[in-house]
Amino acid sequence: MTRDKTTSPYVTYADKLPSLPAVALEVVNLSKRDWVDLEELADVIGHDPALAAKILKLSNSPLYGRRRQVATLNDAVMTLGLNSVKMAALSFSVAGAAGTQEELGGYDLRAFWRRALVQSVVGRGFCRHLDRRFGDEAFILGLLMDLSVPIFCRVAGEQYLPVLIAMDAGHPDCHIEEDHMGVTHASLIGKLMEEWGLPEMVVAAATWHHDPEGLPEGSSPELVDLTRIMNLSHLSACVMMCEQRGDALRNLHTLAARWFGQDKSAVESVLAGLAPSVEQLADIVNVDIGGELKVVEILDAARTELVQMSIATATDLTRAERNFHEMERKASLDALTGLNNRASFDATLAAEWQRRVGEEFPDPLGLIMIDVDHFKKFNDAFGHQAGDEVLRAVALSLRGAVRDTDVVCRYGGEEFAVVAPSASGSALRALGERLRRAVERTDVRAGGGAQKITASFGAAALATEPRDRKPQDLISLADHALYEAKRKGRNRVEAVEDI
Q1: How far is residue 431 from each of residues 267, 389, 436, 482, 493, measured CA to CA in Å?
Q2: Winning range, highest mean pLDDT, from 277-291, 293-307, 338-352
Q3: Which phi and psi (to 5°) does residue 68 adopt?
Q4: Selection from 35-39, 163-167, 291-295, 428-432 with the highest mean pLDDT
Q5: Burial 269-307 (b: 16+ CB within 10 A, else e)
Q6: Tens digits of per-residue pLDDT, 393-431?
Q7: Residue closest to 261 by CA, chosen among 300, 315, 306, 225
Q8: Which of 15, 120, 127, 156 could form a disulfide with 132 if both were Cys (CB 3.0 to 4.6 A apart)?
Q9: 234, 252 in Cβ contact below 8 A?
Q10: Nearest of 68, 124, 56 to residue 273 by alpha carbon
Q11: Average pLDDT over residues 252-267
Q12: Can you name the residues that pair with 409 across neighbouring β-strands?
């Protein structure tokens, strides 16, 4: 995970960033040897009495499930093993880089420690649950992968203030960090860990714990799993601490299932025993986490919030679907008359036509084209508003006279069309005549009196399988019949032979 050391803010704050404590540095150097004498490791740790006390306390804690009381540092090192001691020593010695509350302005150090301890315990718990052998690495990562947040607060001052203001339960928004700092806390802690000489696997997992999918191609399966587990640990801390617990719990369930095939009950079983271990670790590290961690109540609240979110989402989806259908319906209607518009007519006729293609004995398909008689003269005499009333009145009369299966459309201007499935011959002519009478009985108020309305009708029907013909062929025939009706005196129905 080598990064460019000249990249801001590393250069900007290089002289302010913490160095690895002397004892931690010795531990790192020792662990790089091919063979390490555990007594020598115990001797190095013994140079820091506070660190030695924490290691001894850890070896006797239920965190490591030890039944035998450990009395000496040498026994603690032998009991925990090289890797556990190394990771614990690094965690405890480096943790002091978080600083004190007085140094951090408005940042809540208790929230940091609460989150860090939850992540450490949960990370190790997930490793144990999934039978992964890097629980010690998860332990150190949980404690240290957010250590760069208080470091940022201390060394960046007012520049970090917008990030600080937007924090939720002590954790920053990476996008805001990127905008204001040019780098995230995850990238910064990865850089620091690299400079401190921590193991490459720990450095990489810290760097990518917010984005496991961003790991470089070719990363080992162990690194991928560890980074994913630390992402789950981060989400677990969000469930325990953040305002949007339901969101965090949903993401935790989703990713645990996707990455490790774990169901909700398995995930929450890892969280169930969290509180005692976090409190024990807080006592070992000697930090204030701001009171008892009420895991059961918090999980209940998160589940309730998740249910409410699901209900709200379902309601929103239903509303969106209803709005979509309403918009779709309005898009198919003519604004003036409320009938189906030209686009809807074209789609309806095409669908009915296609339904008959290839059928040996298809149902007939009737079409009636309608034109309001002398509409232009009416408009010129009484005005466009009166003309609009005529179109609305004609639309209403047509809609009241058709069958349930018929589709009435405004074709354009003063023209209307009726798509009449299963109608041909005498039945189609009878439908046309019924429509004609309905219009003839209609009048509108204009020019100080009632003005009668009539219309001309042209009908044609498809009575056989369409073969190579097109819907336009039927429209042309109906139009021809309409022309004949107008030529013969208007207010009449003309029909052509079925095609």
Answers
A1: 68, 24, 9, 15, 10
A2: 338-352
A3: -90, 135
A4: 428-432
A5: ebbeebbebbbbbbebbebebeeebebeebbeebbebbe
A6: 999 999 999 999 999 999 999 999 999 998 988 999 999
A7: 225
A8: 127
A9: no
A10: 124
A11: 94
A12: 340, 417
Pairing between β-strand 415-421 and β-strand 407-412 as defined by DSSP bridges: antiparallel
Residue 328 confidence (pLDDT): 63
Q: What mean pLDDT, rounded, does the chain reach? A: 86
Q: How many CA atoms lie within 13 A of 32 on its CB side?
A: 11
Check whether 126 has a pLDDT greater than 90.
yes
The yes-or-no answer on residue 243 being catalytic is no
| Crossing angle of the two packed helices 73-80 and 82-94, in degrees rounded to 10 | 120
The residue type of 425 is: G
The percentage of residues in the chain with a pLDDT greater than 70, rounded to a whole number, is 90
| Residue corresponding to tokens 């109608």 | 423
Active-site residue (options: 352, 389, 414, 494)? 414
pLDDT at 402: 94
